[in-house]
Amino acid sequence: MTALSIEERLGLIRENLAEVLNPEIIESIMAEGRHPKIYWGTATTGRPHCGYLVPAMKIAQFLAAGCDVTILLADVHGFLDNLKAPLELVAQRANYYRFVITSMLKAVGVPIDKLRFVLGSSYQTSSDYTMDVYKLTALVSEHDAKKAGAEVVKQTSNAPLSGLIYPILQVLDEQYLDCDAQFGGVDQRKLFTAAKEWLPKLGYRQRAHLLNPMVAGLNGNKMSSSDENSKIDLLDSPEAVAKKIRKAECVPKVVEGNGVLALVEYVLLPGSGLKNGVREVKVERRDAEPLVYTNIKQMQEDYENDV
């Protein structure tokens, strides 16, 4: 395989992202001939569904770009978020997450020698980490902690104190996982900007942040593990997958909110590029030659024109 240039590697990292905060951090690391260290965390709260393919394809691109990737299986975070994950179930859930995510990456043929999984509870109860938690609770206001977690922590009228600790842990994870950048959805932007402000209070360096867009589910709304109609389960049979695709909310000539087009854009096209070296999606037609797409713009234009 031909070695990629710095620009090609940066292109893989940036592709399909909604935003990059402090991109110069990653650019300078590459200019120095080093490999950026990127971390992505997922709370082990429920069974992964096809929505996980979206961050998985980005992680695959990070690996293809030569980055070192750490996946945090955030068992403690899941417990803190309104007791979503009973601690007695965490170990088995974490094993399943590790297996599923590794399988996704292997499916598109990227090397996983630069991938590591870390269980949150393996270091988040250490004395140094705990002391840093205490330090941030003294430096960060209740208002700022609540604001940072507003989009990622369940908000209730009488919320538990754990919801204020959750964002503090996620910020500290950047330091304790020794990353150069954290990857996550745009719903975490407030938390990411908080990390840029809070870490220097403890004498730690700022990190870059890579923001993925929120992708529509099959019903046109945000994909959710609690909404059976919005997602495809990874254990669904081929017949069940086909049935859900046929029932998907696809308003004629309207691209926005189309979950099927989103899967093509964020999963199928980048996945085929990684696996086959060519980005290509073929649409079979009953009474005509198949349509072949190499970029999402072509497909979106055809859909808007009712081709």
UniProtKB/TrEMBL annotation:
Question: Which Pfam family is one of this chain's hits?
Answer: tRNA-synt_1b
Which reactions are catalysed by this chain?
tRNA(Tyr) + L-tyrosine + ATP = L-tyrosyl-tRNA(Tyr) + AMP + diphosphate + H(+)
Q: Show the GO MF annotations.
A: ATP binding; tyrosine-tRNA ligase activity
Task: Write the Enzyme Commission number(s) for this entry.
Answer: 6.1.1.1
Protein's UniProt keywords contain Aminoacyl-tRNA synthetase: yes
Sorted alphabetically, the Gene Ontology cellular component annotations on this record are: cytoplasm
Query: Record keywords: Zinc-finger included?
Result: no
Signal peptide residues are none
| InterPro entries assigned | aa-tRNA-synth_Ic, Rossmann-like_a/b/a_fold, Tyr-tRNA-ligase, Tyr-tRNA-ligase_arc/euk-type, Tyr-tRNA_synthase
User: CDD domains annotated for this entry?
Assistant: TyrRS_core
One record GO biological process? tyrosyl-tRNA aminoacylation
Keyword line: Aminoacyl-tRNA synthetase, ATP-binding, Cytoplasm, Ligase, Nucleotide-binding, Protein biosynthesis
> Into which EC class is this enzyme placed?
ligase
The subcellular localization recorded is: Cytoplasm
Similarity comment: Belongs to the class-I aminoacyl-tRNA synthetase family.
- Can you name this protein? Tyrosine--tRNA ligase
- What organism is this sequence from? Fusarium euwallaceae
